[in-house]
Q: What sequence folds into this?
């Protein structure tokens, strides 16, 4: 009788929903859900491993870059006379203190600003990559346990 | 659990709540599976495609915009994945996917024809309906199933199918005509 009722109103638009509710709905089992979740987990791990490799390479690169930039910075500091002016602070502090503003100005004039900025940038990249690397390692560690 | 909006669940997942993803998957698993099954007509294949769909959805979840409809977004992935699979396996008649109104065939259909009472006596209604729906051209079947079985609006369907709303409306109307016609033929 129920089916009859549905078909009796088949030409009425609003009853198509009722008609389609007669279509057999296949039920999914827990296995499908579990498979999907495990596939997602597997994919997560794969992506994390790729990130670890990339961040490790980046970290090594940033260390090499930092060493290079630091060497150049040190050479520039020595060449510009900055180190000599600093040593004056310890050897002849009375003269330095009496002309302190001029001393500070000279120090700033002799700073290799570009290389200092590059060094700070290299440090920032290093720390940022390290943060990401540690986060991904922690993720893998959590998953393994 | 059902009261939480899909968009909010996506937001929660992106903030680190893993359980939100599980709720979302459980919410749509059966519906998406059945939708895919209606396209591929094979349980094993539907199983595989459903897995791919949810993995794809997870991979792209960061790109999902909160102001969009999650259901529409997910069904779009499901449809595209199913069609890609069918294309690869060459199961699908490509002309069915084209934006073709197929006027000549439809002109022959008597849209005003009413279904006679005799058809109501058919006991295996579900089975017959399933066969009739499966025999419909892909584009019509998809519109009908999305609209009547998956509770999507015609506007949402137009987004999923990437077709203008008027085309979807016309396809919906023609799909109903074809359905009535097929049911009439079954009776005869």
A:
């Amino acid at each position: 009788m129920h089916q009859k009722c549905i078909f009796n109103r088949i030409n009425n638009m609003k009853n198509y929903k009722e008609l389609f509710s007669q279509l057999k709905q296949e039920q999914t089992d827990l296995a499908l859900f579990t498979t999907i979740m495990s596939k997602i987990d597997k994919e997560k791990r794969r992506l994390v491993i790729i990130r670890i490799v990339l961040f490790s390479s980046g970290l090594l690169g940033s260390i090499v870059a930092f060493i290079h930039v630091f060497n150049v910075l040190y050479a520039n500091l020595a060449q510009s006379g900055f180190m000599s002016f600093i040593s004056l602070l310890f050897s002849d502090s009375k003269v330095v203190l009496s002309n302190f503003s001029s001393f500070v100005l000279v120090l700033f004039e002799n700073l290799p600003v570009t290389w200092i900025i590059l060094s700070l940038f290299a440090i920032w990249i290093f720390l940022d990559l390290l943060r990401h690397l540690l986060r991904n390692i922690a993720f893998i560690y959590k998953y393994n346990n | 659990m059902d009261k939480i909006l899909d968009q909010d669940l996506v937001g929660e997942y992106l903030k680190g709540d893993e359980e939100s993803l599980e709720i979302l998957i459980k919410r749509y698993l059966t519906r998406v599976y059945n939708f895919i099954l209606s396209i591929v007509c094979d349980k094993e294949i539907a199983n595989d495609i459903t897995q791919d769909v949810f993995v794809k959805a997870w991979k792209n979840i960061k790109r999902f915009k909160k102001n969009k409809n999650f259901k529409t977004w997910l069904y779009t992935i499901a449809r595209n994945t199913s069609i890609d699979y069918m294309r690869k396996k060459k199961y699908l008649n490509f002309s069915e996917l084209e934006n073709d109104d197929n006027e000549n065939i439809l002109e022959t259909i008597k849209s005003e024809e009413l279904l006679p009472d005799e058809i109501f006596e058919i006991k295996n209604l579900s089975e017959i309906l399933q066969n009739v729906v499966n025999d419909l051209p892909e584009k019509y079947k998809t519109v009908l199933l999305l609209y009547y079985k998956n509770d999507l609006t015609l506007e949402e369907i137009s987004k999923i199918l990437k077709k203008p709303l008027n085309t979807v409306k016309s396809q919906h109307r023609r799909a109903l005509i074809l359905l009535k016609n097929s049911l009439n033929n079954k009776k005869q």
Summary: Chain A touches chain B through 28 residues (CB under 8 Å). The mean pLDDT of chain A is 83.
